[in-house]
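The authors assume throughout that readers already know how a fold can be written as discrete tokens. The format is easy to grasp once an entry is in front of the reader. For illustration, here is how one protein appears when written out as sequence plus structure tokens:
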Amino acid sequence: MAKPVPELVTHASELFAPLGHIRVKAMFGGWGFYCDDLFFAIVADDTLYLKADPDSAERYRAAGGEPFTYAMRDGSTQTMNYWTVPEEAMETPAGMRPWAQLALVAAVHARKPPSRKAKQ
């Protein structure tokens, strides 16, 4: 049986729709978002997080964003470079666009170049 899609996932998909072909996949107890082939956002614990790189992370932080963190089995905490967006970005596709575009740029930067073997 398919996992029911939470309202936040549906809403985020609508916010991201103007960016391109959006695909959502259930993963690791949360949801992952792809725009075309770029993995750029997650929903975990009822919170949307967008991918960041060192440059954009500072912009998310300055806007009051918080990084995605999770607990490890040993009790330590890990932080991933995914950040929350300002509340007003969650209201309209136009408000989300600049943040989502930052996430797409970060996803491009994080992409590994094709291996030499794949090029042959």
Notes: The mean pLDDT is 91.
